[in-house]
Amino acid sequence: MPEAPTPEASDAGTTAAPPRVLSGIQPTADSFHLGNYLGALRQWVAMQDTHEAFYCVVDLHAITVEHDPELLRRRTKVAAAQLFAMGIDPDRSAVFVQSHVPEHAELAWVLSCLTGFGEAGRMTQFKDKSSKQGTSGTSVGLFTYPILQAADILLYTPDPAAGRPLRVPVGEDQRQHLELTRTLAQRFNHRFGETFVLPDAHIPEGAAKITDLQEPGAKMSKSASSPQGILDVLEEPGPMRKKIMRAVTDTGSEVVYDEEKKAGVTNLLRIYSALEGTSIPDLEARYAGSGYGQFKKDLAQVVLDTFTPIRERTLKLLDDEDHLDRLLARGAERASEVAVRTMETVRERVGFVGRGR
Ligand code: AMP
Ligand code: TRP
User: Fold this and answer.
1) pLDDT per position in the chain (357 positions), as tens?
2) What does residue 96 show for φ and ψ, rounded to 5 degrees?
3) Which fold has domain 20-207+321-350?
């Protein structure tokens, strides 16, 4: 007997169409870091099992700040290689480079015409980044960055009539951009007719914010953290161990969770728990009375067990660039199929004249 269709299966009748997932990451570093991995990328890998997945390396976003062209090209490939190395399967998921699908920029333009100036000005990430660079060093592209992000997401909308959700796995710091995306989708639907499904942020609990190893009050971040504060996925085992052993801990010697008084140990406990899948109380019990040294030594091993295979696979993928390029071409082709269709609908709804043949 055929299985009863799930609520998401409504469009095609017989085959259940899974929900969609879309996410993006900037190619602005030589390696992803532990915050990226636990806050977002690990979810990307897991979600491809239950979703139709689109994952993009957002090079258009990367040029919102000054950049070096050769470095951008290199980092785009390294980023893509790491995604495959982490377990994103090119046979099931579309991994692609944003600039390979020009509809991203095109939809961003349309959405920017629906965004209020003040509304864009309230984005905290823009305020943070632009205050560091000053007005003359801040591009208009940085200002409209979240609108391009909204376009990235909404291009992959399922048909609103199909009842399929659209999910976006990101870290906590992206919540406001997701809210803007929902607002723009709603506004478009209201003005031009039901076109977009409102996306849901998919933010992991607990690991949503990993902090700097040297400054446990601040987020682990490629732009703000010192090299000693950040754990790179592609880090060599020796330096990786050292950084963990030298991570700032707190006065006292007990391994206990306390966000206020023991921010350093708390961050390490979160990392340990997220990587090993052990609860924090179980870890506290395991290390009761054993001090910080043993705890850090074991944590370093847990981190290396996760990252070493990823590092090795990444290096192997980067050894055969033609193969990597082919994987990305396949991803772009799949993404284009959806993006082109969405954009046709958008053009029609907005009132653009169709091009004659
Ligand atoms: P970024 O490196 O800022 O471009 O971020 C890429 C992705 O990683 C986004 O989804 C962020 O929310 C997530 N992310 C970045 N840093 C952290 C962190 N320290 N903790 C958790 N998630 C993070
Ligand atoms: N702004 C996101 C970040 O800094 C990157 C991003 C661009 C993104 N486009 C996206 C994330 C679409 C999710 C969906 O991490």
Assistant:
1) 444 444 444 444 446 799 999 999 999 999 999 999 999 999 999 999 999 999 999 999 999 999 999 999 999 999 999 999 999 999 999 999 999 999 999 999 999 999 999 999 999 999 988 988 887 889 999 999 999 999 999 999 999 999 999 999 998 889 999 999 999 999 999 999 999 999 999 998 866 689 999 999 999 998 888 999 999 999 999 999 999 999 999 888 899 999 999 999 999 999 999 999 999 999 999 999 898 999 999 999 999 999 999 999 999 999 999 999 999 999 999 999 999 999 999 999 999 999 888
2) -150, 170
3) Rossmann fold (3.40.50)
d(CA 122, CA 19): 31
Q: Which CATH superfamily is domain 237-319 in?
A: Tyrosyl-Transfer RNA Synthetase (1.10.240.10)
The response to whether residue 25 sits with its C-beta less than 6 Å from ligand 1 reads yes
Written as six digits, the tokens of 106 are 């095109």
- The binding-site residues of ligand 2, defined as CB within 6 angstroms of any ligand atom, are 22-26, 58, 61, 149, 152-153, 168, 170, 174, 177
Cut 0.85: pTM above it:
yes
Q: Where are the domains of the chain?
A: 20-207+321-350, 237-319
Q: Rounded to 5 degrees, what are φ and ψ at 94?
A: -90, 110
